[in-house]
Amino acid sequence: xxxNVKGALLALFAFGLFSTHDIFIKTLGAHYSPVQIxxxxxxxxxxxxxxxLMRDAKPGTLLPVHPWWMAVRTLGGVISGVSAFxxxxxxxxxxxxxxxxxxxxxxxxxxxxxxxxxxxxQRWLAVIVGLAxxxxxxxxxxxxxxxxxxxxIAAAFAGAFASIVVRKIGAEERTLVMLxxxxxxxxxxxxxxxxxxxxPMPVEHLGMLAIISILAWIAARFIIASxxxxxxxxxxxxxxxxxxxxxVYGLIFFGETPDVYTMVGAGIIILSGVFIVFRESxxxxxxxxxxxxxxxxxxTPSTLxxxxxxxxxxxxxxxxxKPDA
Length: 325
What we know:
Elements: H1 3-29, H2 34-43, H3 46-55, H4 67-90, H5 93-100, H6 103-115, H7 121-138, H8 147-169, H9 175-197, H10 203-229, H11 232-235, H12 242-254, H13 260-281, H14 306-310, H15 313-319
């Protein structure tokens, strides 16, 4: 079995775990505010973060080299987390995924002002096509747009912004700094708001929160392993397998049947994202390869922000585009 096949299989398994993780988010979202779900999922992730902290032998402090960029990234992480959790709770799974799949498209656009990336005609066309796919999913004017739709769009924008900031400063910041600040941001902000929305939680719901944190942690490790094993251009598109899981899980657990507009729009967005990934993987097509080098699982604060870990020096060489054979 080739390294690319192994990497793809590892990624497929990881995103399957993430999709399973989202079932618990949606289930809890029927009973609790996303503020409460985010707070406790992050709280239960701190022991895992502590293990990472203990294993990090790199000298230095936890003070950021770029405090303002780190503050902006943390804000983006907080907004994307609570918005995505709200969207999962109030929209069908397939619709939520379809909108969040626009994140690589938004990263491509944001890479222009933040990274100075040059986006040429072909990638611009992919961006326009992808945004058209989002409009197919939303169907403004012919269907009611809810706060859930707005939350999914906000999660995609904020997540893309947080990710592109990681791409800008990740080479100079300690990995743990990149991971812990968004966690602390979520913990502080959600903790401050918790008093307004808190509902007592039975043991079984606390257990679900623990499962959310554990699944996110395991999936994150598998994604890291997949990128270390296979080429980014092969591994990255595996995230779109979540639409299949969403279709199956939505039908089995929530009685959701995706309509034709959602599936067509999702297909358009996926094709656009795959094109951007493969376009960036070509030598000379992209100076920064922002999408290839920015892997954040939007909407899971408990994952410790994958992009922070994967843009650290340990993974940078693996991500460099390889010459054509």
